[in-house]
Every structure is written in C-alpha cells, then in structure tokens.
Amino acid sequence: MFHFIKLRKIWYAISLLVILPGLASLVLQGLNWGIDFKGGNLIEVRLEQDVRIEQVRNVVEKLGYGAARNIQQSGANDFIIRTRELTEAESEKLISTLEDDLGSVVLLRNERVGPKIGRELTFKAIWALLIASALMLIYITFRFEFKQGVAAIIALLHDVLVVLGIFSLWQIEVNSAFVAAVLTIIGYSINDSIIIFDRIRENMKMRKKGESLEDLVNVSLWQTLARSINTVLTVVFVLVALYFLGGTTIKTFVLAMLIGVTSGAYSSIFSASPVWVELKLLENRGKARTA
C-alpha cells in the first residue's frame, strides 16, 4: 500500500514549489486589483435596440475604459459597465460612443466607487478570513483536538496562498467575486479535512497494539481517498462547464474556485494529516524527554 505519511517531506516540497513563486510574485508585483478595490465607475445603461453583450464590450474596449469581463447584462437590453475611474468628459464620451455605434441609450445610473471603499472591502475580506479561521479552529478543537485544528488551518493557509499566488503570477484581475470564492474554498477544504480527521479518530479507538501513528493515519487516508477524489471531481466537472459556458462575468470566481478546490483536495490529504502527525510526534518526543 502506498504510504502517504512516510513520504510527507515530498508533499511539503511540492507545496513549497507551488507556493514560493506565488509569494515572490505577491511581494514583487502584488495582485491585479479590479475597480472593486482600487476604485472606478459603475455605469448602467439601457439600449433601445436589441444588442448583444459582445457589441457593448467592443465599444468599451475600443475606448480603453475597461476589460470585457467587467461588463454584464442585467436585463433584456440593460447593461452594467465597470470601468476605471472616469472624468465627466470620459463618461459623456462613453455614452455618445455607445449611441453612435449601437443606437439610442438611456443612462440609468453612473456611480463612482472610490479607492476608500476598496480599502474597506479589503479590510473586511481579511477580517472575514481571520474570523472564519478562528471559528474553525475552535470547532475542530472542541470536536477533535487542538493540534488537528492547527493542522487544518495550516492546510487552509496553503490553499489561500496557492490561489493568491497563481492570480498574482498571471496578473488575473481580482474583484469582489474573488473574495467570495476564497471564502467558499475555505469552507470546502475544511470539510474534506474534517472527514479525514473523523476517520482517524475512529481508527484511534481500534488501534492495534504496536501500530505506529503514521501507519494508522495512512490507513485512514486510504479509507477516505475514494470519497475525496469523487467529491472533488464532481465539483471540478461543474466548475469547468461554468468556466467555458457561464460567461465572462463569473470567470474570475470560477477560476479561483477551480484552483482552490483542487488545492483543497490536495492539502486535505497531503498537508493537513501529515502536519498533524508531525505535531503529534513532536509532542511524543517531548513527553519522552520529560520522562
């Protein structure tokens, strides 16, 4: 039987190879913040004629005001356009260009999102991440033990760093949907880790005499492996379909979910349980020295 735990240093090395370039990119070039974070304009228009969303995107991109993914259809002929922060003259030029290319336009709203709101959103996202992690640590400590809670949080940090690193390396735009995706990833990943920890706890009660902790955890991983793979594949199939068929407005969310779900399945098996084993072995060595 393939031994996951005895090869844990290899899994740590693979994680570092994925995470370290992303961390370097975060330090050197940071994230590509969208208007939700750095500010911009949110313009909603209604066109009198039947128009495809691609036509609206072509006009906005031609003017250089924003990317195609920042435009979404909110009604039959209603469109929400997110752009960089525009002056009054640039806003008027956008409306006049839409009228010239696509026909009569009714301006429903033109709201400016300042960078202050973006900073507030960033602050709240970090707080949401910290509060969620703290509550999960408390829950896992109550249900299992503190060391398993620490191992699970380390696995969650692994997933968040993987997603942030990839988005930074490829400079994929980060918006409010990205924050929602990261929080969803955390919930998914912790669920998988808890299933594995629950099986470890059950096997601990029936632990054979002389059976090492590493062997027991390895058996537990094998017993839950099929369930973990089937679950992640089911989610990945849906996300892949959404990525290619769901439209550009949700691509950031879906891409973050795809990366995070895959990383979450990996970290639950190759990070959370091995890290817990490391913590338990350190505890046992400490007790032996004390004795």
What does this structure look like?
The protein has 291 residues and is of the alpha+beta class. The protein folds into two domains: 8-34 and 117-290, Multidrug efflux transporter AcrB transmembrane fold, CATH 1.20.1640.10; 40-113, Alpha-Beta Plaits. 71% of the residues lie in helices and 10% in strands. The protein has nine helices and six strands, in the order H-E-H-E-H-E-E-H-E-H-H-E-H-H-H. It has helices spanning 8-28, 35-38, 53-63, 88-102, 115-143, 146-169, 176-205, 213-245, 251-290; strands at 32-33, 40-47, 71-73, 78-83, 105-113, 173-174. The strands form two sheets. Strands 3-4-2-5 form a four-stranded antiparallel sheet. It has a two-stranded parallel ribbon with strand order 1-6. Helix 3 (53-63) crosses helix 4. It starts with 7 loop residues before the first helix and ends with a helix.
The main pleated sheet reads as: 4 strands, antiparallel
Shape: elongated
Termini Cα gap: 35 Å
Element-level helix/strand string? HEHEHEEHEHHEHHH
> Poorly predicted ranges (pLDDT <50, ≥5 residues)?
none
Strands in their spatial order, largest beta sheet: 3-4-2-5
The name of the CATH architecture of the largest domain is Up-down Bundle
Question: What percentage of amino acids are in beta strands?
Answer: 5-15%
> What count of structural domains?
2
Total DSSP E strands: 6
Mean pLDDT: 89
Whole-angstrom Rg: 24 Å
Please name the CATH topology of the largest domain. Multidrug efflux transporter AcrB transmembrane fold
The number of distinct helices, counting runs of at least 4 residues, comes to 9
**Which class of the largest domain in CATH terms?**
Mainly Alpha
Structural class: alpha+beta
